[in-house]
Amino acid sequence: MFERTFRAFQYRDFRVMWMGACTSSIGTWMQLVAQAWLVYRLSDSAVYLGLDTFCGQIPIFLFSLFGGVYADRKSRRNILIVSQFVQMTCAFTLAALVATGVVQVWQILCLSFIVGTAQSFGGPAYSALIPSLVGEEDLQNAIALNSIQFNVARVLGPVLGGFALDQLGADWCFGLNGLSFLAVIGSLLAIRVGYAPPKTKASVMASMKEGLVAVRTRSGMTGLIALAFWITLLSYPLTTFLPVFAKDIFHGGSMTFTMMLATYGGGSVAGALVVASRNQKGMAKNSLIVMVLLGVLIAAFALSRNLFFSIAVLFGAGIALIIVFAVNSSLVQIYVTDALRGRVMSVYNVAFRGGMPIGSLICGFLIKQTSAPVIIAANGVLLCFLAAYFLFVEKKVARL
After folding, report:
1. What is the residue extent of each domain of the chain?
2. Spatial contact of 225 and 390, defined as CB atoms under 8 Å apart
3. CA separation for the pair 3, 109 (Å, rounded)
4. What angle (nearest 5°) sits at the alpha carbon of residue 262, between those of residues 92 and 90?
5. Phi, psi (rounded to 5 degrees) for 395
6. What's the CA gap between 356 and 349, in Å, rounded?
């Protein structure tokens, strides 16, 4: 059981990349905790929380298709190194702004946009790089283990970030995140990448069109892309507006928010372990069933007024969320060739990451008109209907 769950670790380059990415992800989550709390403290507005998420994610929606083309044309490692350097510079800049006492919300929004732009090129390159580090038979396991590193970071990062925020200040969170990028840059320099991009005379637009055609012609692929968009649009606002629940619903401070975020991440680690230990067969249908459970849990959290019950529900929601995300991502990567992987994953990233800013922005304005519990509960109900549609009406995804 243990060997099956962690079998992708037998590949040296995957292990090195995993450790570097995990270290960097811990730093990123430290910054996200501090940044969300800082934005809410400076603005006292859920709208600005949603706007910060929008600024960080909308470049991925706008530029990921171009990032996918370059991921199939250029060195994926070099693209990632440049992306990490840009994000590291932004983290150090934000640390300096906070340390000198001149930080304003508009500066945070601008830096979020720059980081999102760097991720729009780094994301497709990273998604396309991982399959080249393991054998095809271990791809789903590698994707699940990659989800584990992200979610281990989502547990450790908020805990460390919450402690640093309380004891040292937000500037330390941002500075430590800047240093964490050195780990992933070092791992990128240490690995051996087997994939060499083919030379092509096709234009960028022609290459982009080829990726879109690959998505459209593969049975079930369009449904997976649509699911990625709607799931993130409806589920991600739960994470975005956790500070609102922590502060306004449960009347807590930054540590209450940190505890919620860490619990949610802990559930996601458990969910990723479930995916890593399972075979691919039949997982698409099972993930849709789990999505119904996810919707129920999100609605239950939104309507709960008991902190301990809410924490337990968050853990379960984290399990359900990562099962759905990891299975969908692995199915997309399994059904595409290496030469097209960067472009197809860029389409997936546009949908997956595009749902985040749109959902957060819409929910931010709706929460201002009503309340966070009402809007987040409605999102949970809509997730249930979405899963039912793909289970009983549009059945191509369920058959994968």
Report:
1. 2-192+203-392
2. no
3. 44
4. 15
5. -95, 0
6. 11
* For range 235-251, the mean pLDDT: 89
Gap between the Cα atoms of 156 and 146, Å rounded: 16
Asked whether the beta carbons of 211 and 343 are under 8 A apart, the reply is yes
User: How many CB atoms lie under 10 A from the CB of residue 50?
Assistant: 26
In this structure, are residues 333 and 349 in contact, taking their beta carbons and an 8 Å threshold?
Answer: no
Q: Which amino acid belongs to residue 250? A: F
Residue 272 burial by CB count (10 A; 0-12/13-18/19+): exposed, middle or buried? buried
With cut-offs at 50, 70 and 90, classify the pLDDT of residue 387. Answer: very high
The whole-angstrom separation of Cα 334 and Cα 210 is 18
| Six-digit token string for 14 | 């995957």
Q: What is the CATH number of domain 2-192+203-392?
A: 1.20.1250.20
Structure confidence by residue, pLDDT tens digits, 279-299: 655 577 888 999 999 999 999
Q: What is the dihedral of CA 157, 28, 121, 12, to 10 degrees?
A: -50
Residue 50 has pLDDT above 90, yes or no: no
Per residue in 136-160, pLDDT (tens digit) is: 778 778 877 887 787 677 777 777 8
Q: How many angstroms separate the most distant Cα atoms in the chain?
A: 61
Cα distance between residue 199 and residue 221, in whole Å: 27
Cβ contact 293:266 at 8 Å? no
From the CB of residue 125, how many other CB atoms can be counted at a distance below 10 Å?
26
Residue 188 has pLDDT above 90, yes or no: yes
Q: How far apart are CA 35 and CA 32, in angstroms?
A: 5
Count of alpha carbons within 13 angstroms of residue 197, beta-carbon side: 21
What CA–CA distance (Å, rounded) separates 282 from 137? Answer: 16
Token duo for residue 209: 């069109």
Top-confidence residue, 197 or 177: 177
pLDDT of 348: 84
CA distances from 29 to 4, 14, 198, 260 (A): 29, 22, 36, 13
Assess whether pLDDT exceeds 70 at residue 333: yes
Q: In this predicted structure, what is the pLDDT of residue 196? A: 65
Tell me the pLDDT of the chain averaged across its residues: 85
pLDDT, residue 94, reads 94
pLDDT value at position 90?
Answer: 96
